[in-house]
Amino acid sequence: MTKKFLDKAYDLDGTEATQALYAEWSASYDAEVTENGYATPKRCAEALAQFAHLNKPMLDFGCGTGLSGLAMRAVGFSNIDGIDINPEMVKKARSKGAYNALEVLEPGALPEKTYPAVAAIGVIGAGAAPVETMDLIWEALEPGGHLVFSFNDHALEDPVFEGKVEAYTQSGKAKQVFREYGPHLPGIDLNSVVYVLEKM
Questions:
Q1: How confident is the model at residue 5, as a pLDDT?
Q2: pTM across the whole model
Q3: Closest by alpha carbon to 144, among 63, 71, 55, 53?
Q4: For 78-89, what is each residue's pLDDT tens digit?
Protein backbone atom coordinates (compact mmCIF):
# COMPACT_ATOMS: atom_id res chain seq x y z
CA MET A 1 0.00 0.00 0.00
CA THR A 2 1.32 3.41 -1.00
CA LYS A 3 2.16 5.68 1.92
CA LYS A 4 -0.02 8.81 2.15
CA PHE A 5 1.44 12.22 2.93
CA LEU A 6 -1.35 14.79 2.53
CA ASP A 7 -2.48 14.41 6.13
CA LYS A 8 1.04 15.35 7.29
CA ALA A 9 1.85 18.11 4.82
CA TYR A 10 -0.03 20.93 6.54
CA ASP A 11 1.48 20.39 10.00
CA LEU A 12 5.13 20.81 9.04
CA ASP A 13 7.28 23.40 10.78
CA GLY A 14 10.53 24.64 9.31
CA THR A 15 12.51 24.16 6.12
CA GLU A 16 14.25 20.95 7.19
CA ALA A 17 11.03 19.16 8.07
CA THR A 18 9.42 20.31 4.83
CA GLN A 19 12.43 19.21 2.78
CA ALA A 20 12.47 15.78 4.39
CA LEU A 21 8.77 15.13 3.83
CA TYR A 22 8.76 16.31 0.21
CA ALA A 23 11.85 14.26 -0.57
CA GLU A 24 10.09 11.13 0.69
CA TRP A 25 6.81 12.15 -0.97
CA SER A 26 8.32 12.84 -4.41
CA ALA A 27 7.75 9.30 -5.72
CA SER A 28 4.02 9.25 -4.96
CA TYR A 29 3.18 12.98 -4.89
CA ASP A 30 1.59 13.17 -8.34
CA ALA A 31 -0.63 10.15 -7.76
CA GLU A 32 -1.83 11.29 -4.33
CA VAL A 33 -2.72 14.86 -5.28
CA THR A 34 -4.22 13.80 -8.61
CA GLU A 35 -6.52 11.25 -6.96
CA ASN A 36 -7.75 14.11 -4.76
CA GLY A 37 -8.58 16.26 -7.78
CA TYR A 38 -5.71 18.76 -7.54
CA ALA A 39 -7.27 21.77 -9.28
CA THR A 40 -5.12 24.77 -8.36
CA PRO A 41 -2.42 24.43 -11.07
CA LYS A 42 -5.02 24.56 -13.86
CA ARG A 43 -6.84 27.47 -12.17
CA CYS A 44 -3.56 29.37 -11.77
CA ALA A 45 -2.48 28.72 -15.36
CA GLU A 46 -5.81 29.93 -16.73
CA ALA A 47 -5.69 33.04 -14.53
CA LEU A 48 -2.12 33.97 -15.53
CA ALA A 49 -2.89 33.42 -19.22
CA GLN A 50 -5.38 36.30 -19.04
CA PHE A 51 -2.56 38.76 -18.31
CA ALA A 52 0.83 37.37 -19.36
CA HIS A 53 2.26 36.84 -22.85
CA LEU A 54 2.24 33.11 -23.58
CA ASN A 55 5.50 33.11 -25.56
CA LYS A 56 7.61 35.21 -23.20
CA PRO A 57 9.76 33.57 -20.52
CA MET A 58 8.07 32.63 -17.27
CA LEU A 59 9.31 31.13 -14.02
CA ASP A 60 7.62 28.33 -12.09
CA PHE A 61 8.89 29.16 -8.59
CA GLY A 62 8.68 26.08 -6.37
CA CYS A 63 7.88 23.87 -9.34
CA GLY A 64 7.81 20.63 -7.34
CA THR A 65 7.27 17.59 -9.53
CA GLY A 66 6.23 19.72 -12.49
CA LEU A 67 2.44 19.44 -12.39
CA SER A 68 2.29 23.23 -12.49
CA GLY A 69 4.56 23.32 -15.54
CA LEU A 70 2.27 20.89 -17.34
CA ALA A 71 -0.71 23.07 -16.46
CA MET A 72 1.08 26.12 -17.88
CA ARG A 73 1.92 24.24 -21.08
CA ALA A 74 -1.70 23.15 -21.41
CA VAL A 75 -2.93 26.76 -21.63
CA GLY A 76 -0.22 27.76 -24.11
CA PHE A 77 2.83 28.96 -22.17
CA SER A 78 5.84 27.83 -24.19
CA ASN A 79 8.94 29.20 -22.46
CA ILE A 80 8.98 27.95 -18.86
CA ASP A 81 11.86 27.66 -16.40
CA GLY A 82 11.44 25.87 -13.08
CA ILE A 83 13.19 26.14 -9.72
CA ASP A 84 12.71 24.27 -6.47
CA ILE A 85 14.70 23.61 -3.30
CA ASN A 86 14.07 19.87 -3.39
CA PRO A 87 16.33 17.79 -5.68
CA GLU A 88 14.02 14.76 -5.65
CA MET A 89 11.06 16.87 -6.77
CA VAL A 90 13.13 18.50 -9.53
CA LYS A 91 14.18 15.07 -10.77
CA LYS A 92 10.50 14.16 -11.17
CA ALA A 93 9.81 17.50 -12.88
CA ARG A 94 12.61 16.92 -15.37
CA SER A 95 10.95 13.73 -16.57
CA LYS A 96 7.83 15.64 -17.64
CA GLY A 97 9.53 17.72 -20.33
CA ALA A 98 7.55 20.86 -19.52
CA TYR A 99 10.53 23.10 -18.79
CA ASN A 100 13.23 24.77 -20.85
CA ALA A 101 15.50 24.81 -17.79
CA LEU A 102 15.29 23.39 -14.27
CA GLU A 103 17.42 24.33 -11.30
CA VAL A 104 17.72 23.33 -7.65
CA LEU A 105 18.23 26.41 -5.49
CA GLU A 106 19.18 26.72 -1.86
CA PRO A 107 16.41 28.06 0.41
CA GLY A 108 16.47 31.86 0.25
CA ALA A 109 18.40 31.98 -3.04
CA LEU A 110 17.21 33.85 -6.10
CA PRO A 111 17.34 32.84 -9.77
CA GLU A 112 19.98 34.62 -11.83
CA LYS A 113 17.49 36.55 -13.95
CA THR A 114 14.07 38.14 -13.66
CA TYR A 115 10.92 37.17 -15.57
CA PRO A 116 7.84 38.95 -16.99
CA ALA A 117 5.65 36.23 -15.44
CA VAL A 118 6.11 34.10 -12.34
CA ALA A 119 3.97 31.33 -10.88
CA ALA A 120 4.17 30.21 -7.24
CA ILE A 121 1.44 27.59 -6.99
CA GLY A 122 0.92 26.18 -3.52
CA VAL A 123 4.36 27.46 -2.52
CA ILE A 124 3.46 29.67 0.46
CA GLY A 125 1.32 28.51 3.35
CA ALA A 126 0.94 26.10 6.23
CA GLY A 127 3.42 23.25 5.84
CA ALA A 128 5.12 25.05 2.97
CA ALA A 129 7.20 28.22 2.64
CA PRO A 130 6.69 31.08 5.12
CA VAL A 131 4.91 34.25 4.04
CA GLU A 132 8.24 36.11 3.79
CA THR A 133 8.97 34.00 0.72
CA MET A 134 6.65 36.37 -1.15
CA ASP A 135 9.38 39.01 -1.00
CA LEU A 136 11.86 36.61 -2.61
CA ILE A 137 9.41 35.66 -5.34
CA TRP A 138 8.69 39.32 -5.98
CA GLU A 139 12.39 39.96 -6.65
CA ALA A 140 12.24 37.44 -9.51
CA LEU A 141 9.45 39.40 -11.24
CA GLU A 142 10.12 42.20 -13.72
CA PRO A 143 8.37 45.58 -13.30
CA GLY A 144 5.04 45.40 -15.12
CA GLY A 145 5.09 41.61 -14.85
CA HIS A 146 2.49 39.32 -13.34
CA LEU A 147 2.67 36.88 -10.45
CA VAL A 148 0.11 34.12 -9.97
CA PHE A 149 0.02 32.34 -6.62
CA SER A 150 -2.39 30.56 -4.33
CA PHE A 151 -3.27 30.28 -0.65
CA ASN A 152 -5.23 27.23 0.44
CA ASP A 153 -7.78 27.16 3.26
CA HIS A 154 -5.09 26.40 5.85
CA ALA A 155 -3.18 29.55 4.88
CA LEU A 156 -6.37 31.60 4.74
CA GLU A 157 -7.05 30.74 8.40
CA ASP A 158 -4.03 32.86 9.36
CA PRO A 159 -4.56 36.58 8.55
CA VAL A 160 -0.83 37.10 8.00
CA PHE A 161 -1.07 35.57 4.51
CA GLU A 162 -3.79 37.77 3.04
CA GLY A 163 -2.30 40.59 5.08
CA LYS A 164 0.84 40.26 2.99
CA VAL A 165 -1.18 40.72 -0.20
CA GLU A 166 -2.88 43.80 1.28
CA ALA A 167 0.50 45.23 2.27
CA TYR A 168 1.72 44.89 -1.31
CA THR A 169 -1.35 46.47 -2.86
CA GLN A 170 -1.79 49.25 -0.30
CA SER A 171 1.88 50.27 -0.55
CA GLY A 172 1.63 50.62 -4.33
CA LYS A 173 4.09 47.80 -5.01
CA ALA A 174 1.38 45.73 -6.66
CA LYS A 175 -2.03 45.91 -8.25
CA GLN A 176 -4.35 42.95 -7.67
CA VAL A 177 -5.86 42.09 -11.06
CA PHE A 178 -7.40 38.73 -10.20
CA ARG A 179 -8.72 36.95 -7.12
CA GLU A 180 -10.88 33.81 -7.15
CA TYR A 181 -11.84 31.32 -4.47
CA GLY A 182 -12.39 27.79 -5.71
CA PRO A 183 -11.39 24.11 -5.53
CA HIS A 184 -7.88 23.08 -4.49
CA LEU A 185 -8.08 19.42 -3.45
CA PRO A 186 -11.77 18.49 -3.65
CA GLY A 187 -11.02 14.94 -2.49
CA ILE A 188 -10.22 16.27 0.98
CA ASP A 189 -12.68 19.20 0.75
CA LEU A 190 -9.93 21.82 0.56
CA ASN A 191 -10.22 25.07 -1.42
CA SER A 192 -7.85 27.86 -2.32
CA VAL A 193 -7.72 31.47 -3.48
CA VAL A 194 -5.86 32.14 -6.73
CA TYR A 195 -4.40 35.64 -7.06
CA VAL A 196 -2.68 37.52 -9.87
CA LEU A 197 -0.67 40.60 -8.92
CA GLU A 198 0.85 43.09 -11.35
CA LYS A 199 4.19 44.57 -10.29
CA MET A 200 4.01 48.36 -10.32
A1: 60
A2: 0.90
A3: 53
A4: 999 999 999 998
